[in-house]
Amino acid sequence: MSLLREPILALSRSDRVRDALVRTPVTRGVVERYVPGETTADAVRVAGELAADGLHVTLDHLGEDTLDVAQSWATVDAYHELLTALADEGLAHRAEVSVKLTALGLALPDDGPQLALEQAQRICRAARRAGTTVTIDMESHAVTDATLMIVHELRRDFPETGAVLQSYLHRTVSDCRTLAHEDSRVRLCKGAYAEPDDVAHTDPEDIARAYVRCLKILMAGAGYPMVATHDPRLIEIASALAARHGRRPGTYEFQMLYGIRPDEQRRLAERGETVRVYVPYGAQWYGYLMRRLAERPSNLTLFARSLVST
Ligand code: FAD
Description:
alpha/beta, TIM Barrel, eight-stranded parallel beta sheet, 13 helices, binds flavin-adenine dinucleotide
């Protein structure tokens, strides 16, 4: 794993660095590669462009780790506005939403989990009204249990709600077995947070091997696997496993992040695969951007150069 990954992920939690960067206009160029805009109108425009290219979309209103109830409500309002706009533009069959529970107040002391559940239920209700679905993003291991519990609760009324599992966590093979059932939508990713080695694999090859173990379970299961990776080896293995289990395109999907391997996204879609692009939008891009830089420290050179030339 890159020597820079840990320090960059540590910076992703620094309010001081965040405040300095957000005030620096030149960071915009780097941000735009991964975050195409700040407003609902930007999100809907990009969703329309990707849909016109034959791609599906999941939209994430950026924000996380809030301890402010008013901020939690602002996030719910933003999703309401987005879902209404998607329905109005006729995009709800192509675009769903991704939601982080810590943006809804999960980490608030005492009643955080209850608040996050109720707020997520409001978003699921709005999504169903609009004709689309919600996937609950997975965050650091500190909230894995709480997140899976809330997804379980949400699925009582909204069984279409998607879950996310991270192959780097030691527990995930077992979570895959639990979730590989009928009607279950599971996004499998490697995992983007800095995790200690008693809970997570830290060697990239171990993480990839664990990803394959998880893929085997999900592809053999009765649910709907969402293969979220840009890793060419894993994409090939996922395709082979889908074929081995007689899965046709549309009974699973590939997912990639906005701005990463866009040609591969279109190549897979042209081959007849369902491909969904994760599009984050909004002003609170700092944590998201730092996780993307941590995955690709070579992007840091570009980033640092833009700061020096300020
Ligand atoms: P890597 O080995 O990191 O990358 C493979 C190749 O992809 C690289 O060689 C490079 O060519 C390209 N690439 C990867 N990252 C970058 C980058 N930043 N810039 C440029 N090129 C790059 N993580 C979570 O913890 N929780 C979530 O809820 C979550 N949701 C996700 C949803 C989607 C749709 C996707 C695609 C990822 C999500 N992730 C999430 C992030 C994921 O966990 C990984 O951190 C991320 O996808 C990088 O891993 P990789 O599988 O692409 O493999």
